[in-house]
């Protein structure tokens, strides 16, 4: 089983940022309102992700590390309409198989906290507030070939920050902090008590910069049961700025050719083919109209009707940019 987990790890865990993505995913699934990521050496020596979510009961700590252990699929129908981010029950087992992992947790409504050491299986009491901390030390220590492929600490750190950023842009109501070598690298405070659009605008300003918001227009359009909201950079901004292209489908970050092509098509006339457009788009669609289980890293979706999605995204951006439609 260890070997199978290590093979699974090969697919799921490419670098420290893959671990960060999965652990933050779990924290959000657990209903965290604050997620703190601490890293040493770009995450290679240490990654800890701390949350204030529902926690894991003592007896379930060993289960969480087992392959195909997930608390998130009740039945097969759930697979079709899954709304939580993770659903495969493999991430923790895979990560633990290529690192020194431990989980510390105190479930909601309980006075005591426990700590499980993955390698030794030792379970002992510890002290902490409600929530969970997963600690991953010495990633790939047992697979030096993979460790060799890692880049400099700063590059790995940048990938880790990007992994958190992708979550943060989807969840303005959750606060995030990233520490590296004891220094605060990024902090995005929870936006509370604001209407959804306002919360999103504030989080976008916080994460992508005031400039991004100032030099972009609001996207908001719904057609054929496909909702598209967010912001799209005005052409001048797109010409001068970095390649911010964030797309979410039902709250899940995705990279999708249909969406990026639709965006490029919308910009074609106004950009004169000079540069990539910049945008943060949030698409909502009936989960029955997409497949999300196409890749172990869960970054891809397959739209059952990509033509409708293409048109919805294209028209949403064209409307925002006030591009006349032929
Ligand atoms: P999945 O997220 O696909 O269910 P994982 O391997 O990522 O699988 O996690 C296994 C299980 O461990 C989860 O289903 C959940 O029950 C538990 N778990 C992991 N991380 C946390 C956390 N931060 N808070 C609460 N429960 C967690
Ligand atoms: Mg998970």
UniProtKB/TrEMBL annotation:
Location of the DNA mismatch repair protein S5 domain: 204-322
Superkingdom of origin: Bacteria
Task performed by this protein: This protein is involved in the repair of mismatches in DNA. It is required for dam-dependent methyl-directed DNA mismatch repair. May act as a 'molecular matchmaker', a protein that promotes the formation of a stable complex between two or more DNA-binding proteins in an ATP-dependent manner without itself being part of a final effector complex.
Family according to the record: Belongs to the DNA mismatch repair MutL/HexB family.
Record's protein name: DNA mismatch repair protein MutL
């Amino acid at each position: 089983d260890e070997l199978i987990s290590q093979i699974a790890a090969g697919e799921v865990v490419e670098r420290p940022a893959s671990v960060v993505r999965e652990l933050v995913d779990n924290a959000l699934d657990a209903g965290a309102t604050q997620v703190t990521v601490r890293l040493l050496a770009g995450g290679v020596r240490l990654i800890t992700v701390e949350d204030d979510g529902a926690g894991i009961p003592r007896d379930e700590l060993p289960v969480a590390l087992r392959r195909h252990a997930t608390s998130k699929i009740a039945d097969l129908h759930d697979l079709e309409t899954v709304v939580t981010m993770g659903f495969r029950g493999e991430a923790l087992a895979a990560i633990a198989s290529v690192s020194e992992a431990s989980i510390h947790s105190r479930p909601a409504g309980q006075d005591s906290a426990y700590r499980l050491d993955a390698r030794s299986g030792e379970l002992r009491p510890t002290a902490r507030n409600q929530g969970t901390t997963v600690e991953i030390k010495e990633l790939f220590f047992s697979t030096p070939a993979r460790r060799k492929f890692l880049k400099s600490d700063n590059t790995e750190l940048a990938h880790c920050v990007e992994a958190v950023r992708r979550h943060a842009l989807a969840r303005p109501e959750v606060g995030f902090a990233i520490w590296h070598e004891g220094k605060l690298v990024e902090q995005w405070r929870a936006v509370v008590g604001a209407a959804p659009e306002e919360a999103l605008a504030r989080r976008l300003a916080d994460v992508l910069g005031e400039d991004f918001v100032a030099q972009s227009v609001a996207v908001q359009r719904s057609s054929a049961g496909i909702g598209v909201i967010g912001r799209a950079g005005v052409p001048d901004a797109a010409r001068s700025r970095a390649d911010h292209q964030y797309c979410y489908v039902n709250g899940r970050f995705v990279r999708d050719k249909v969406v990026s092509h639709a965006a490029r098509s919308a910009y074609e006339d106004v950009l004169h083919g000079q540069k990539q457009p910049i945008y943060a788009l949030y698409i909502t669609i009936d989960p029955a109209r997409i497949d999300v289980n196409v890749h172990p890293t869960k970054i891809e979706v397959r739209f059952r009707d990509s033509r409708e999605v293409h048109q919805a995204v294209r028209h949403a951006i064209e409307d925002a940019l006030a591009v006349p439609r032929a």
